């Protein structure tokens, strides 16, 4: 997507400057807990001297609930208008919108060849009055549902002439500076500065935040017709401070609107007549989710590709919003995800080093292909984030407080939260712990290196990770990795990680630690984070912001084959015996306690998809069996192929 921004006072100023919001605009002003504030952060929070772009200091709103209310109010005061030419249409859109109120901010972004303007009024009433004056297209049969997503009719020629004179041409995004992430990281003075730059350049932009909050408010408005007290609450990396460009939007529905707090005392003697709920809460949730999916699919503007996943542990409905470019998940019932996001949000407010460290660890996991966007046996970003919290709790002196400490200091009534019999009460004022960071003056570089050493040396065989106490407790099950869910304590966040993937995590931590400790051997352009294994993906990646999750494409020939199981097994055994295929699995516990360091030329296994493609080619070369290319001629392993194998196994 391409972005531009205009700040307006009473009317839209005759200025439309093309900027990239993720670089110079809307840098959240952090409250640093150490005396030495990094200079790179001070520079990133400055506004370009030639523009009148304003900055929002959202970090002054330390409380999570205040941030949510501020963002929702911002979204309820905004509309999105699709136009043909943003230069020629901005003045006309402002002229129409100014009849109903003052336009305080105006954004421009492009999505799938659509030119859209996001306008924010200074009050919610102005946006309501504007939507009340809109109409539907009578020339086309449409579902006449109201939404904050509008489009502008053809503009008169006289307005077009006056518009071109008032607004200069939009700067091309490719001409902007600071567009090369590799160059920025190479020119940094230290690894700590590299980590700050990486976090600053990859964080979710302001327009990305606004589009997600508008989507959330739109869903809330559509469903509140059935449930007037309903609230739609976002959770996940989008709101906990670790959101990146392209992240999805996770939302939880609260029908009563209490959001885990105790309901207010009823003052009126009159109460609503209502249907009785089903005794089976899961079945009731599934029915509600199915109704919500029908509303999204049939009546909600912009919601496409609606999928119902009702048999999951938490039933959800997935959909894609074609005007904001966001993949969304809507769930209902438990609000533990919202309170978990609030906990991580508070940790980010307690110490400024938390977010850059989490960003560096997540990118390291992505570069080493330890994490995956598709659910599977690999470790997740959420698990890595909890391990970072656990690591910071164990520093001496501790940087972050344990959850037990926050529970003991919780204020009655103010901090009490409960959802589905899960107690989510903890202190929700980060100012109580912000002085603690001054006692620990470790740099980001030291923390990142020590975190890798922590991964390398931790006893995953016997111990578990728990941010509740900040201590390594004995494991509660036989899974290779046990990371306790801090709110639903009977759950293991890392239960999906198998032994092979845990081994890869430990070995990649050892490799990265060795590389960072031998920086003298690296070239001037290949040092620090860029020297980590497979960090060359930074050079091939496009640093431009995007709202899409890029799912890797899988070739059809990798899924279908005419080869039988026995032929493939025989080929694998032959290759392993010759040492041609790397299939050896090293125990992470043995690797963690080994004192030998890998050499710089140590051979590492290839990625899963590349290994699969190479393996299929080797199967074709050695067995002479071809893979069909036509999808309609790609049968799965049929009964005809299975019968000879079953007979052979019986013999």
UniProtKB/TrEMBL annotation:
Residues 637-651 have a biased composition (Basic and acidic residues). Residues 628-651 are annotated as: Disordered. Residues 191-348 form the Poly(A) RNA polymerase mitochondrial-like central palm domain. GO terms for molecular function: poly(A) RNA polymerase activity. Pfam families: MTPAP-like_central (PF22600). InterPro entries: MTPAP-like_central, NT_sf. One of its GO terms (biological process) is RNA 3'-end processing. It comes from the Eukaryota. This is Poly(A) RNA polymerase, mitochondrial.
